[in-house]
Specification:
single chain; alpha+beta; Glutaredoxin; 3 domains; 4-stranded mixed beta sheet
């Protein structure tokens, strides 16, 4: 019968001088069925029975999978909150009124600016509506475009002034 040390895997030879209960290579005590037990004062060195669980990496893989699933399924909640935040900011945007004409190039640039930056606005064509023309005149307009942001009035297309007035509501 071959005797192999459970600690260092040394195969015991017939001419080894160590007692039967001790490994000749690592000199640690081991207990085998049918062998004599080591003396009472050396039993503390007997082989410990450890229940090693295989799959230590599997535990971390499971944790990583749980975090990935939480992130993946939590994304719609985060997107919903950001959409609600955008809606709240958009709701507080001041009223923007554009007094314009169809043929005006600067009016077209104003429309494009509002569209590119996600600004909600109301457009009044002063050539098609007498009410729009009278409001335009009351605001001191003598040309187009005339843009009213809240209580502020911008004569002509002035992108710097529009950016300053609409800074919190401009996207990107």
């Amino acid at each position: 019968m071959s005797r192999i040390c459970p600690h260092c895997n040394y195969a015991r030879k017939a001419d080894d001088q160590a007692p039967d209960w001790q490994c000749p290579a690592c000199e640690r005590a081991y207990a085998k069925a049918g062998n004599t037990m080591p003396p009472e004062n050396l039993r503390q060195y007997a082989a410990e029975v450890r229940s090693e669980r295989p799959g230590g990496a599997g535990k971390w893989l499971l944790v990583l999978l749980a975090f990935g699933a939480a992130f993946w399924f939590g994304r719609p909640l985060l997107q919903q909150k950001s959409a609600q935040a955008e809606a709240a900011v958009a709701a507080s945007q001041p009223e923007v009124v554009l007094y314009a004409t169809e043929w005006c190039g600067y009016c077209k640039m104003s429309r494009e600016f509002f569209a590119a930056n996600g600004i909600r606005y109301i457009e009044h064509d002063i050539e098609k509506s007498s009410t729009a023309l009278s409001e335009h005149k009351k605001l001191g307009g003598n040309g187009v475009p005339l843009i009213k942001v809240g209580d502020e009035v911008v004569n002509g297309y002035n992108e710097a002034a529009l950016r300053q007035l609409l800074k919190p509501w401009i996207r990107g």
